[in-house]
Amino acid sequence: MSLRGDYVHAVIQVTRDMVPVVFSRWTLPFDGAVDLGVADLTLAQLVRIAEKENLLHDTHHNRPTSTSEWAQSLSTRIIPLKDLLQLLPLELGLSIELAYPSAALRAQLYLSRSHDLNTFVDAVLSTVYSTLAESTSSGERQGIGREPQRRKLVFSSFAPDVCAALNWKQPNYAVFFASDCGVWNWPLDADFSCSLQADRSDRRCGSVAGAVDFAKSNNLLGVLVNADILTKVPSLMLGIKDVGILLAMFSLRDKTEQPPQEPGVLDAVMRNGLLTFVDHTPRTGN
């Protein structure tokens, strides 16, 4: 299946009772006095707090109707991954980022609980595959004799070991290693703040070379790297492509200067909660 097209981006964490949910921050406020980690709460507890703090995605009223509305909602609201997969229109792809805190980050942010990495990844994959199987079965019943429309998905993570586990545990969907490549100067209120606080002690997270070497050695499809670095050093783009992996870039800024490039070098761009894969198909005249 071709990757080209738009993918709404969703950051996924897992509750204490092993339910994957969309939420782009490591903690959420409780009674204005304490911040609680997603892994500290059951789904029921998370929903009650999210409702009180006006963070719950409304699945019944004011449902997003456009790609940009979906992207905006998923960057700020909480919704179980299963519900998202059922509600998101099939024509929209879904970019699933698994947010898994390192031991250093847990200590830094005072996160008291974390799941075993394999258990965490299994919970997300189980939800994805079971929900998509239900949707496919329903589509086949409604359209006998027609090929059911299938959801486009890609996976990513700023945690390298999560990427390796994703690629090893499932063969169907692309996996990208996301990396700030040593740049840790993003605003603390950024929508992707839970992703961007990477483990600075991990060499795989600290440079473009570290990210590319890791992606290549683990047979990942590509890397998703900081757009600021590519803008400042455009020559890095050809170096990454020469390794034989796909190149995607992300930016949290509304206006990021597009790095100069040769045609066919940049494969995808993530901006404002939307990952767009470039169509490199040669165009012919009439």
Cα distance spanning the termini: 27 Å
* Helicity, as a percent range: 25-40%
Structural class: alpha/beta
Beta strand count: 12
- On the 0 to 100 scale, the average pLDDT is 85
Oligomer state equals single chain
- Which regions contain 5 or more consecutive residues with pLDDT less than 50? 188-192
How much beta, percentage-wise?
15-25%
Largest β-sheet summary: 8 strands, mixed, barrel
Note the run of SSEs as H and E.
EEEEHHEHEHHEHEHHEHHEEE
How would you describe the overall organization of this protein?
There is one protein chain. This protein is α/β, with parallel strands linked by helices. It has helices spanning about 45-50, 65-75, 80-85, 105-110, 115-140, 160-170, 195, 210-215, 225-230, 235-240; strands spanning about 5-15, 20, 25-30, 35, 80, 95-100, 155, 175-180, 220-225, 245-250, 270, 275. Helix 3 packs parallel to helix 5 and helix 5 packs across helix 6. The longest helix has 26 residues, at about 115-140. The chain is globular and about 50 Å long. Residues about 190 have low confidence and may be disordered.
